[in-house]
Design a protein that fits this description.
Blueprint: E1 19-21, E2 25-28, H1 31-42, H2 47-61, E3 71-78, E4 83-89, H3 99-104, H4 123-134, H5 144-152, E5 154-155, H6 158-169, H7 176-181, E6 194-195, H8 198-217, H9 219-230, H10 237-241, E7 246-248, E8 251-255, E9 258-262, H11 269-279, H12 292-312, H13 323-326, H14 329-336, E10 358-365, E11 371-379, E12 387-388, E13 393-394, E14 425-429, E15 432-440, H15 444-459, H16 463-468, E16 472-474, E17 479-482, H17 488-496, E18 500-502, H18 504-508, E19 515-522, E20 527-532, E21 539-542
Parallel strand pairs: 17-18
Antiparallel strand pairs: 1-20, 2-10, 2-21, 3-4, 3-11, 4-7, 5-6, 8-9, 9-14, 10-11, 12-13, 14-15, 15-19, 16-17, 19-20
Length: about 550
Amino acid sequence: MFTSHRPYGYGFRAQRSMVLARRGLVCTSQALATSVGLHVLRQGGSAIDAAIAANLTLCVVEPYHVGLGGDCMLLYWDAAEQQLHALNGSGRAPASLTLDRLAASGCSTMPLLGPLSVTVPGVVQAWADAHARFGRLRWQELFAAALDYAENGFPVSEVIAWEWQTIFNVGIVQDVHARAWFSIDGRAPRLGEVMRLPVLARTLGELSQGGAEWFYRGPFADAAARAVGEQGGALSVTDFAEHSSSWVEPIETTYRGYTLAELPPNTQGITALLALNILENFDLARYGPSAPEVHHYRIEAVKLALADRNRFVADPDFVPVPLSELLSKDYAQGRAALLQPRRALRQPTAGKLSPLGDTVYLTVADQRGNIVSMISSLYFPFGSGVAVPNTGVVLQNRGAGFVLDPDHPNCVAPRKRPLHTIIPAMLFHDEQPVLSFGVMGGDHQAQAHVQVISHMIDFGANIQEALDLSRFHVLEHNRVAFEEEFDPALVQALREFGHAVADPNEVRMRSGFGGGQGIMIDWSAGVFGGGSDRRKDGAAMGY
């Protein structure tokens, strides 16, 4: 993609250049985590070693987004095998979490927070499984930097300080244990203050020695189940003991000669593929990247794809998800036929078939050509709000992804995985990966994948430019918010097309406009090019 790249050329250039390297490259949402991953690569670690070490560091320096109580998804390109592997590290609902139990607890909708929103945390098992298969360094070595930062402290960076303060200001952190761990004198740490997490440091030390067995079938599982049970939740030690990750087949579609790979359901990865299939029916390049028609078609394609996601995506171990039909080009043509050149759809619905928060993302490439696209999350800030005493760990609220309609594929059920937002991605050309990327931000993730890919393939942007360009975010009821950097004349033109424009501040208080990382690969030159989103405290670093 480097050789075909031309300057963006339409009045936009990213505020910084891509980082170029030959032997290895790491991109994360926090510069300290990036430097940790790079250090692991220099020690001879594999891409997966560096990714896990960086992810562990993010659990310390960005603890409201990611932690041991969350989930993890990843794609791994094995250069020796010339094979793409996908790992679903999402947890399942507790065995005793039923519709009847939720009804008896007075729930008319799925709880967003609290003990009944907790699912089994999958991230530790995902790390362990990926390391066992693709790691080169010892498991214990991956913890060194995270342990150091947790015990001895780290300076809180700009965006993280602002987000941490906002979370405390709106009263999200109510648990007495969590508030003590993640505050300084009862308040959020300020920019540049050194924050220490000694309780979490002890837990990381235990995990480094005991591994996934200690976490899922040892003291941690006992403590977590007890904490949830005391607050009226359903999670048990048996739920922990029976947890497993899943190696799955990626799903993919083509877009103008490139192939985008995503994780299959229960993730929303199909949403990006559906939208790109629709968008492929329109010649965006003829308009130019700043034309209202380009944004109109992107928004409309995303609306239709979200409608299909909300109707069909669920845990395939429980309900059939019609992947082949949804991803067919014929289906996309039918959906594209619904779109009008200058008229927004009012109420997009799912297509007719035959029978039927926030997050951290990172990507790593090593000198052997192995590439990791990894994303992990607690979902909402500090997850469910349920803390495991004496551990420094809060548990995720991924159960909030379920619905309570018994006729819906995504209805809650024992040992079922919910609709999941986190989606790592890779783009291929001629059967070789040319881009590893992801964009965090709940519902925004698939929408941002579409925008990044379209910027790059339709208009020649590089990864740094594609990440930094302003984004839209489709909300419920088919409203759409635009980042403030959008030209007001462009937004007004889209209003005249019939788009219901929402206040961008509403998005910022939810999953926001995301924050992405990405690595482009030029195999002929043997060069990696990294980009790190301006919206985060991250960095791309290579050697």
